[in-house]
Amino acid sequence: MRAFDQINVIPFIDIMLVLLTIVLTTASFVSQGLIEVTLPETETAEAATPTDEKIIELSINSRQQIFFTDQLVTEAELEQRLKTLNKESVIVLRVDESVRFKHFVFIVDMLKKYQLEKLSILTRKHTQ
After folding, report:
1. Which member of 5, 82, 93, 123 has the lowest number of beta carbons within 10 Å of its beta carbon?
2. pTM as predicted
3. How far is CA 58 from the centre of its chain?
């Protein structure tokens, strides 16, 4: 039996690249699910398009709790944070389908009050 003069690392590199791809793909899906929100379904849902602008995510979960970029806040704290935002900030609103409409209206009214007009409302596409 002949001894190897050198080790072939190409198969090892192939496996590592596949594993890296799996980890990166999984990580992008996990980051979306930090706050459990069941989005309402719509007929006209569109895929979100990535942007270079800083995105501020507002969420309301099924227990009517408000989150500002993954931090639990009161209505007063939310108002203080919105007051300091740049008018060009992009706001993404994620509201659980079981949330009372008055909470949704409160958030939208607050955004309008501080002239934060770049608003996206996340929903999920209706499936039949």
Report:
1. 5
2. 0.58
3. 9
| Through-space distance between the first and last CA atoms of the chain, rounded to whole angstroms | 63
Q: What domains, with CATH codes, occur in the chain?
A: 41-125 (3.30.420.270)
Q: For residue 47, what pLDDT band results from cuts at 50, 70 and 90?
A: low
Categorize the per-residue pLDDT at 24 as very low, low, confident or very high, splitting at 50, 70 and 90. confident
Per the DSSP assignment, residues forming a β-bridge with 73 are 66
Which of 43, 68, 44 lies closest to 55, judged by CA? 68
8 A C-beta contact, residue 67 and residue 59? yes
